[in-house]
Specification:
Length: 294
């Protein structure tokens, strides 16, 4: 009876021929199996191959180079600043021009005589402003408070003057801001017309209110149907004649003319009213003669 070959039998019942021999050298003479060859259509595309891993050493080199350049720039700026200070410190200081003005010899001879009161405008306007108003013509009737609101004794205070405007409350505040000082006024009646003249004075510590008041009056006069002419010798003076009368039921038509100009801190206002159209000659004559007195 034959005994089984224990050397060729594996413990699990498999044959030793079925166990691969790891020590056996590969058979290089065996031809490859065509069935197991790779399919060329399934070969990886070189264009779709993953990018190679970044080079950490190259990136660190670029960062280090940028840091070195920035450091060099900072050091260059510091060195240039220090050099500038050193160069400036070695230079001689530049002399500044003297603050004092050159001494001039004092003029010899007599000083000019002061202006007489008749020629000194400041003395004239600081005195009795009513004395500078035109006098009523011979034969004319001087208006009083019962005939015309001319103020007490030829003066108008702030409230009385502001009351001549439609928006009197608003005008009162505006005149206060404009530093209203006083107003001298006169009025008379002659033939078919009435004349009123006002000399309005401002303190003018902050603004040139007299000229501004003339501009405002001229603005409203230009906005109406008027003929106007410049008043000679006044600079900003202008006279106006209204072409259409003011009409109101129960009253006769009322024609008007006006003139405005300024001299220093005094604003001149002339108003003429009549039952007939006011002539250019009348309003211009009044304006020229009144400004001559200023």
């Amino acid at each position: 009876m034959e005994q089984p070959d224990k050397a060729n039998d594996a413990p699990d019942g498999t044959s030793s021929a079925d166990v691969p021999d790891t020590d056996r050298a590969p058979d290089t003479d065996r031809a490859p199996d065509p069935a197991q060859a790779p399919d060329p259509a399934q070969a990886p595309d070189p264009a779709q191959a993953p990018d190679p891993a970044p080079d950490p050493a190259g990136r660190r080199g670029r960062v280090r180079t940028a840091a070195l350049i920035g450091t060099a720039l900072v050091l260059g700026l510091i060195a240039g600043t220090c050099t500038g200070y050193l160069v400036q410190a070695d230079r001689e200081p530049t002399r500044l021009p003297p603050l004092s003005q050159p001494v001039l010899p004092q003029a010899t001879g007599k000083a000019p005589a002061p202006l007489p009161a008749a020629q000194d405008r400041r003395v004239k306007t600081d005195g009795d402003l009513r004395a500078l108003l035109l006098k009523k013509p011979r034969g004319a009737k001087q208006a009083d408070e019962t005939d015309w609101p001319v103020g007490a004794d030829g003066w108008m205070d702030l409230a009385e003057y502001a009351g001549n405007f439609e928006e009197s409350d608003q005008m009162f505040g505006q005149l206060t801001m404009d530093e209203f000082r006083r107003a001298a006024v006169t009025a008379w009646s002659e033939n078919d017309h009435t004349v009123e003249i006002r000399l309005v004075q401002f303190r003018q510590e902050e603004t040139l209110a007299a000229g501004d008041a003339v501009d405002d009056n001229q603005y409203w006069a230009d906005a109406e149907d008027t003929d106007s002419w410049a008043v000679p010798g006044t600079g900003d003076g202008r006279a106006y004649v209204h072409n259409r009368p003011e009409t109101e039921p129960g009253y006769e038509p009322l024609y008007s003319a006006e003139a405005f100009a300024s001299r220093g801190d005094v604003a001149m206002e002339i108003w003429v009213y009549g039952s007939k159209r006011i002539s250019k000659k009348l309003i211009m004559d009044l304006a020229e003669r009144q400004m001559e007195r200023l």
